[in-house]
Amino acid sequence: MALLITDKCINCDMCEPECPNGAISMGSEIFKIEPDLCTECKGHYDKPTCQSVCPISKCIITDPDNVETEDQLLEKFVVIQGMA
C-alpha cells in the first residue's frame, strides 16, 4: 500500500528528504505522496522513514485507495531502482 499524508500535515519538511524514492513533494497546501513511487520503503528500510520522522501522530497513513501487497511493493521497488 502506498502511504498518504493527511490534512494534519504542518509542512515541517521532515518527510520529503527522507523518502528514498522521491515520492514526497509539496502539494498545493500540504506535502503529498505519489502512489506510483511509494513503496513504504520496502527494499530500503524496515519501516517507512517518513512516518518515523513525522512529528505529528497519524499524519502519514496507509492510503486506502492504493492497496498493494508486500510483494507488489517490492516489485515496484525493483522497477523504480531500474533493476528490472
Q: Compute the CA-based radius of gyration.
A: 12 Å
Quaternary state of the chains: single chain
Q: What's the helix count? A: 2
What is the general shape? globular
Strand content: 5-15%
State the end-to-end CA separation. 20 Å
How many domains?
1
Structure description:
This is Ferredoxin. Keywords: 4Fe-4S, Electron transport, Iron, Iron-sulfur, Metal-binding, Repeat, Transport. InterPro entries: 4Fe4S_Fe-S-bd, 4Fe4S_Fe_S_CS, PSI_iron-sulfur_center, YfhL-like. It comes from Salinivibrio kushneri. GO terms for molecular function: 4 iron, 4 sulfur cluster binding; metal ion binding. This protein is of the alpha+beta class. The chain has a single domain (about 5-80), classed as Alpha-Beta Plaits, CATH 3.30.70.20. About 20% of the residues lie in helices and about 15% in strands. The chain contains 2 helices and 4 strands. The chain has helices at about 50-55, 70-80; strands at about 5, 25, 30-35, 60. The strands form 2 sheets. It has a two-stranded antiparallel sheet with strand order 1-4. The longest helix has 11 residues, at about 70-80. The radius of gyration is 12 Å and the shape is globular. The model has no long low-confidence stretch (mean pLDDT about 95).
